[in-house]
Write a structure and sequence with these properties.
about 350 residues; alpha+beta; CD59; Phosphorylase Kinase, domain 1; 3 domains; 5-stranded antiparallel sheet; 8 helices; 10 strands; about 40% helix; about 20% strand; membrane; ATP binding; nucleotide-binding; serine/threonine-protein kinase; transmembrane
Length: about 350
């Protein structure tokens, strides 16, 4: 009875060895996804395997046979070991227990499908045209706005300088009217010969473009009075609007009466007109007196008895001059209190 278990163990061992030999002789049948001619079946004396990988973002599975030359070592082939790293892109499992055993194999990838390489995005022709046209349009709008603001500012600044300072910088002649060392008073005396009519007509018609207005010193019903600079000397500029042309003409005619020049009478220089860009200005240019009119001077200063007597004598002399001029040339002069 004791010999029976030993006999059964021997027979069982032989059957196992015989089965392995039969497999090696007849081969192992496996599922093959590319073997159409053999009904998707392949035979090998090695192993059946199933592998998986990503292709174009889609997970693919392959079922094949692993030949004996690749099934080394025989009990645990190297090719049947998959990487467990996170970035693995290929996984493989093997079996040799029975035919078609690889049908049930499901190798897994540690790489998630979201991490697979995606195809580059391509833009349509309309999108490319929009990407080019929109920035170009914005740039043109900004450039146009800057140019408009710049031009408007310079126009306004030029008009302001034209009104306030005249055209000295633009239209000053290369050869000035006054030679060096010749004052405005000397030039008036030389050109008028004591007639009192002011500068020659040619000089009068260009003097407004050579005067630089400095500050306003008075304002009335007919216009404004400015202190100006002409050839380095102060002059008084009375500016009439075009609506007061009759008043300007009458006053200019009075100033240009012959024999009106005198040291005690306001000296007349010229009468001219000037376009400031919006309306025409009518100018009367005379000598500039720092203390203003007699009325203004008496309002700001107090005179003693001797000063009053001295000024009365001067006023009497001025009145005699006006009476003589009125009788000689029959000029009707209105003598205001602010003479």
């Amino acid at each position: 009875m004791r010999a029976l278990p030993r006999t059964l163990l021997f027979v069982f061992t032989n059957l196992i060895c015989l089965g392995q030999n039969i497999v090696e002789i007849w081969g192992l049948k496996c599922k093959c996804d590319i073997c159409k001619k053999t009904n998707y079946t392949c035979e090998t004396t090695g192993y059946c395997f199933a592998s998986t990988y990503f292709k174009n973002g889609v997970q693919q599975y392959d079922y094949r046979c692993l030949g004996p030359n690749l099934s080394l070592p025989h009990n645990n082939p190297i090719f049947c070991h998959s990487s467990n790293s996170f970035n693995a892109t290929f996984a493989m499992k093997c079996c040799n227990k029975e035919d078609y055993c690889n049908i049930h194999l499901m190798p897994e990838l540690t790489l998630r499908p979201q991490a697979a390489i995606k195809e580059p995005a391509y833009f349509t022709s309309l999108e490319i045209a929009a990407f080019i046209a929109i920035p170009t349009l914005i740039l043109c709008i900004v450039a146009g706005a800057v140019y408009f603001v710049h031009t408007s500012y310079h126009r306004r600044d030029a008009a302001h300088r034209h009104l306030r300072h005249g055209d000295d910088a633009l239209e000053a002649p290369e050869h000035p009217l006054l030679n060096k060392g010749v004052s405005l008073k000397h030039m008036i005396e030389m050109t008028t010969s004591g007639s009192g009519s002011g500068l020659p007509l040619l000089v009068q018609r260009s003097i407004a473009r050579q005067i630089q207005l400095v500050e306003i010193i008075g304002q009335g019903r007919f216009g404004e009075v400015w202190r100006g600079r002409w050839r380095g000397e102060n002059v008084a500029v009375k500016i009439f609007s075009s609506r007061e042309e009759r008043s300007w003409f009458r006053e200019a005619e009075i100033y240009q009466t012959v024999m009106l020049r005198h040291d005690n009478i306001l000296g007349f220089i010229a009468a001219d007109n000037k376009d400031n860009g919006t309306w025409t200005q009518l100018w009367l240019i005379t000598d500039y007196h720092e203390y203003g009119s007699l009325f203004d001077f008496l309002g700001r200063n107090t005179l003693d008895t001797n000063g009053m007597i001295h000024m009365a004598c001067r006023l009497q002399l001025v009145l005699l001059i006006f009476i003589w001029i009125s009788w000689e040339h029959k000029v009707n002069l209105q003598l205001p209190t602010e003479i």
